[in-house]
Amino acid sequence: MPFPGLTVIGERINPGFASSKKLLDARDLGGIAELARSQVAKGAPLLNVNAGTAGENDPAFVAELVRTVQSAVSVPLSIDSPAPASQEAGQAAYDPARAGGRPPIVNSVAETRWELLQLRRRHRAQVLFMASERLQDGQPTPNRTPDEVVDTARRLVSRARAEHSDLQLSDCILDVSVGPMATDTEQLLRTAVESIRRIGADPLLRGVRMSVGLSNIGIMLPKRSIDGMPIGLAFETAFLTRCVPLGLDMSLATAGRDYRVLPEGHPALDAFDAFIAAEDGFEALSGLKRFYKLATPIEKAA
After folding, report:
1. Could you tell me how far CA 147 lies from the centroid of its own chain?
2. pTM score over 0.85
3. Which residues fall within 8 angstroms of residue 119, CB to CB, at 6 or more apart?
4. Does residue 302 register a pLDDT over 50?
5. Beta bridge mates, 83
6. Considering all CA atoms of the chain, what is the largest pairwise distance in Å, rounded to the nearest integer?
7. Strands of 126-130's sheet, edge to edge?
8. Which burial class, exposed, middle or buried, applies to 219 when counting CB atoms under 10 A from its CB (0-12, 13-18, 19+)?
9. Edge-to-edge strands of the sheet including 296-297?
């Protein structure tokens, strides 16, 4: 069964995908419009728009990209750029009327780039906050423990709402970040799960939304399958199976993938639980390698 209450943010307009990079590098607006339509047709109720380096260096291109996507689909957009000029251009180009009156998302505000939040004084928007990093001694510092993630989340939301009286908790999206499971020597996936648990139970944060970049989990996992599913997808669905009940309700992900609740006893869910419960990163990765032996190699198409 699919995940009730989970909003998939279509992730494909992003140079991290080779086919999308070709479209963005060529500034193929027709191809990008078709990519937007395809994601919505597959069920994405919201799309992320990330022009990559080109967007950071050319704010006009970000604006053109937003207008192109909005000419093709009528869903809200998450405008994904850390560059203030590019974020401003994208927000200014966004037309709420083309999204049923729904606001865009500023993606993403962090303690290290707080100036992005000031765009809300000119453009009504929801805000995606990076709870995975903090400002310490004037320097960006990654959060490695649930305590650090939750403390940062509280500061982000509290400060933002103090400065923007119209910002509701439901307008705040906390990204706790997940990385590749295959190289997770620091057990950051366990930190993410525990952070989601604590944020979901925190009375000071009740009403906020939570998101992750789901596809990061499966990066670099071998081309093998378990129970008919590629193991990258199997572990992504295992993560959702454990975290959606804890309060995770958004995910940057690929629309149309077979995200489904895994039953207790599913081998991927058991392996995921063991990975999270491992005493250290070495034990976690050793268990993951043992799991590979249970999976079936995926043969390349002829």
Report:
1. 21
2. yes
3. 84, 87, 88, 91, 106, 125
4. no
5. none
6. 59
7. 209-211, 172-175, 126-130, 105-109, 77-80, 46-49, 7-13, 250-253
8. middle
9. 229-230, 224-226, 296-297
